[in-house]
């Protein structure tokens, strides 16, 4: 599904730039930079934020079963909120 018509970005492309670790984009602006473009009208920022939030929540829920309290995703999720 196209989430940004100005830059013709799909939800798959947005999810594709999300990777575990501290270098993972945490804001729509960082996603744009990761994908080599910049926001134009900005109407897609809310949708990109939703994709980021869901991906971070999924990563954190998977992480809690393996690394528990030492998980850095919890801290990053709190920073993003």
Automatic annotation (TrEMBL):
Belongs to the Bfd family. Residues 2-53 form the BFD-like [2Fe-2S]-binding domain. This is Bacterioferritin-associated ferredoxin. It holds the Pfam family Fer2_BFD. InterPro entries: BFD-associated_ferredoxin (IPR052371), BFD-like_2Fe2S-bd_dom (IPR007419), BFD-like_2Fe2S-bd_dom_sf (IPR041854). GO terms for molecular function: 2 iron, 2 sulfur cluster binding; metal ion binding. The lineage of its organism: Bacteria, Pseudomonadati, Pseudomonadota, Alphaproteobacteria, Hyphomicrobiales. Keywords: 2Fe-2S, Electron transport, Iron, Iron-sulfur, Metal-binding, Transport.
């Amino acid at each position: 599904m196209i989430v940004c018509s100005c830059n013709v970005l799909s939800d798959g492309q947005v999810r594709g730039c999300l990777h575990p670790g501290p270098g993972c984009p945490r804001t729509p602006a960082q996603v744009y930079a990761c994908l080599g473009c910049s926001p134009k009208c900005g109407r897609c920022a809310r949708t990109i934020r939703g994709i980021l939030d869901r991906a971070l929540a999924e990563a954190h829920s998977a992480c809690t079963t393996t690394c528990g309290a030492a998980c850095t995703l919890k801290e990053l999720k709190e920073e993003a909120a």
